[in-house]
Each structure stands twice: as C-alpha cells, then as structure tokens.
Fold:
Amino acid sequence: MQYLPRLRRPSAAASRGQAMVELALVFPLFVMLLFGIITLGIGVFYSQQVTNAAREAARFASIHSATASRPTVSWLNPTSPPLSYNRYDRPESSWPYMTPAGRRLLFGINATAVNVAA
Structure:
C-alpha cells in the first residue's frame, strides 16, 4: 500500500494574506475603471451642455432674423442693397441678445467661458 501525504488546509492567517494580495492586485484596476467612467460621464455632460447652448443661440438667431424688429445678424455683410432694417443684435457688440439666450440654460459650466458666434 502506498502512503499518500495528507494535504494540509491553509490556516486562517494564510487565507487572510491571500485575500489582501488579491485585493492589492485588483483594487487599483477597479479604481481606475471607476474614475474613467466618472470622467467620461462628466465629459459627455459638458458636451451636451455646450451643444444645448449652441442650439438655443441658433434658435434665438433664427427666430429674430432679418424680418424681425430686432434682427440678429452675422459677421457677413450683404453685398446687395443697403440694409432696410436696424441691426440691434450686432456681432461687433458680441451679440448682446443671442449670447445670453444661449448661456441661460447652462448648468454646471461657467457661462462666461462659453462664447457664441453666428
């Protein structure tokens, strides 16, 4: 009959050490993944906020077009006959009506850091 050595079960101290080593190997990867997801989410949020501000500014400019009493005009000067209306929302004065229309719905972003151009 052949003698088989008896396998010893690891002690509680050895299994605690094993768990700590596994945690030390996996935890940094988990933290990097978590912070990566958070950073990506913040980036998408800011992108959506700026897109919404541009959409609102474009909507304001289209509603207050050349047929309105206070039109929003672009940098481009028409080569046709002289303007038949008064330009209230001028690019030279940073579009004083269109810019706040685009900035008013910003949340979580410094509104003065967002520039509006037509």
Summary: The chain has one domain: 18-113. Residues 18-113 form one domain. The CA atoms of residues 38 and 101 lie 30 Å apart.
